[in-house]
TrEMBL record:
Cellular compartment(s): Cell envelope
Organism: Bifidobacterium ramosum
GO cellular component, one term: periplasmic space
Family: Belongs to the bacterial solute-binding protein 5 family.
TM ranges: 21-42
Descriptive protein name: Dipeptide-binding protein DppE
Length: 567
């Protein structure tokens, strides 16, 4: 948990959503019953795993699951959790975080040194670092990689994540050349960051793979083909990408012999498969054909108390995103508020997600920060800003229809095509249509990469989205700021922009002021219903019980097996 008090990470030296439309809709009660009873199969054993045939310490190949298609393997362009996980196998950051949330050196050999005024951050790299082709990796490669992210020519949808670096905002806006970014190579092994303002989360922010080094000559050699397939990438991490052509749903990672910590990389190969069907995931795991899968629904209940089940608490916010700029009906505030009030988040969390989630209380996840004065959580201090009130929802919806001069409205809701996303989409469809007569919701379940593309085109009605943010709670409100790439609604507000700018600059390490501005920004987004918070989910996995040494992250609720091994 991140508190609005100065973080003090501990140092250790060696460890870091096809279109498908649903027709006739049953009542909410029927949907809940149907979706809650979807599980099948027993959980008595994982025979291959349990007897050691799938978990021998001599095994050198790990078989892993990805929950959806990768949108990009370019470490400077990743913006979704799926791609972020995929890139993390071969793109080494300066620092990693362990399962306790502690920051540990990766490419860096020690924790960063922050100047007394909080504006200068020095990072010293390990000696003898190399890219996967054996060429030297120096501080200049880090500088190039970071500059490339903010360079408008790159088109990174995550460029504004680096606004904490001096001049990044101006460079992404095309107002300054990229060489004016607050980063330089002091020597072959020393990188110096100059910040926009003191940032209490700077050590955690330096764990981002957006900051991974990139070899300039290699990028220039590959040109427009850079990162489009496995052969057009160089690795800096534990593994090299292999057998990926840019669109396939099966690929692998092979051990990188030039990795600085290669002696502690235990697998020669990691085979990855995209598996979306819940029953297929479990069957593959039970038959020993895969060592780790993400599970949902009744399967979580079936595996309760079993050693294969691993649950990772998550600070990821699951939201119903609104295409306000692309659908004039959604520009009606009463309609947006009616949609939010009509959704029973408790039922969604318990009946549909089988207790794997808690109802959202606002835009910023509960648990990421506490009031610095009294220690109260967001829920305790700010209250529940995402309540259910079906009577009020009906009243506001009728008023909205009158204001719009129509008797009905119809929206298309896009979700990813994995089982859980489909269930949530069906549930929202039933809830909203049952509660708000005159509303029609068509659900389109598509590959995650297609959903991402629709949302980033800013041309959609409703979308099931989410936000993992960073360790700085500001990232959850910054998503909806006017100029931010992932402001999917294309909401424009000088008030919100001012609040976000204050959080990113003026507030610095004034934790009391940061808390107040976070509260105001969260309240603003709810008052204007720019987005509809749904739930805050944990992630549950089935993991081969003989696998040890993997790292879990509460930020995205993920598991990283890069440095794991079989006992």
């Amino acid at each position: 948990m991140v508190r609005l008090t100065p973080p003090s990470p501990h140092a250790t030296q060696h460890t870091s959503a096809r279109r498908r439309a649903f027709g006739v809709i049953a009542s909410v009660a029927a949907i809940v019953m149907a979706l809650s009873a979807c599980g099948s199969g027993g959980t008595s054993t994982n025979a291959a795993n349990a007897n050691g045939a799938n978990g021998s310490s001599s095994r050198t190949t790990l078989k892993w699951e990805a929950s959806g298609e990768v949108t990009t393997m370019d470490s400077g362009k990743t913006y979704d959790t799926i791609s972020g996980e995929a890139v993390g196998f071969f793109a080494e950051p300066l620092y990693r975080q362990d399962s306790n949330g502690d920051v540990t050196p990766a490419l860096a050999k020690s924790l960063p040194k922050v100047s007394e005024d909080g504006l200068t951050v020095d990072v010293t790299l390990r000696d003898g670092l190399k890219f996967s082709d054996g060429s030297p990796l120096t501080a200049s490669d880090v500088v190039y990689g970071v500059r490339r992210v903010v360079d408008p020519a790159t088109g990174s949808q995550s460029a504004k994540n680096l606004n904490y670096i001096k001049n990044a905002t101006e460079i992404t806006a095309g107002k300054l050349p990229v060489d004016q970014l607050g980063i330089k190579a002091v020597s072959d092994t020393q990188v110096r960051f100059t910040l926009t303002s003191p940032n209490p989360y700077i050590t955690q922010l330096l764990t981002d793979t957006l900051l991974s080094p990139v070899k300039q000559s290699f990028v220039e050699e590959k040109g427009k083909n850079y990162a489009l397939n496995a052969d057009s990438l160089l690795a800096t991490g534990p593994y090299k990408l292999a057998d990926w052509n840019g669109t396939n749903v099966n690929w692998k990672y092979v051990k990188n012999p030039n990795y600085w910590n290669a002696k502690n990389v235990h697998f020669k190969e990691i085979d990855v498969s995209v598996v979306k069907d819940a029953a297929s995931k479990v069957n593959l795991f039970e038959s020993g054909q895969i060592d780790g899968v993400h599970i949902t629904g009744d399967y979580i209940k079936q595996y309760q108390g079993k050693k294969e089940l691993v649950t990772v608490p998550s600070l990821r916010a699951t939201n119903l995103e609104l295409g306000i700029s692309s659908n004039k009906n959604l520009q009606n505030l009463n309609l947006r508020k009616a949609l939010s009030l009509a959704i029973d988040r408790k039922q969604l969390a318990s009946a549909i997600l089988n207790g794997e989630a808690t109802p959202a209380v606002g835009v910023i996840p509960n648990g990421i920060a506490k009031n610095p004065e009294n220690g109260k959580s967001i829920a305790e201090d700010w209250g529940n800003l995402a309540p259910t009130d079906k009577d009020k929802a009906k009243t506001l919806f009728k008023k909205a229809l009158s204001e719009l001069g129509t008797s009905s409205v119809k929206f298309r809701l896009v979700t990813s095509d994995d089982d859980q996303s489909k269930k949530i989409g069906q549930y929202l469809q039933a809830q909203l249509q049952d509660t708000l007569p005159g509303l029609t919701i068509d659900v389109a379940s598509v590959p995650s990469s297609v959903r991402f593309e629709e949302m980033m085109s800013y041309k959609f009605d409703l979308a099931l989205g989410g936000w993992s943010g960073t360790w700085d709670p500001t990232s959850y409100v910054q998503q909806h700021e006017t100029s931010y790439e992932h402001n999917h609604s294309q909401w424009k507000s000088e008030e919100l922009t001012e609040l976000v700018n204050d959080l990113n600059t003026k507030d610095g390490t004034d934790f009391k002021l940061r808390w107040q501005h976070l509260k105001e920004a969260n309240q603003y987004l709810i008052d204007n219903q720019v987005v509809i918070p749904l739930v805050q989910a944990s992630n549950s996995y089935l993991v081969n019980p003989n696998l040890t040494g993997y790292v879990t992250s509460s930020l995205g609720g993920t598991i990283d097996p890069a440095l794991a091994k079989f006992n």
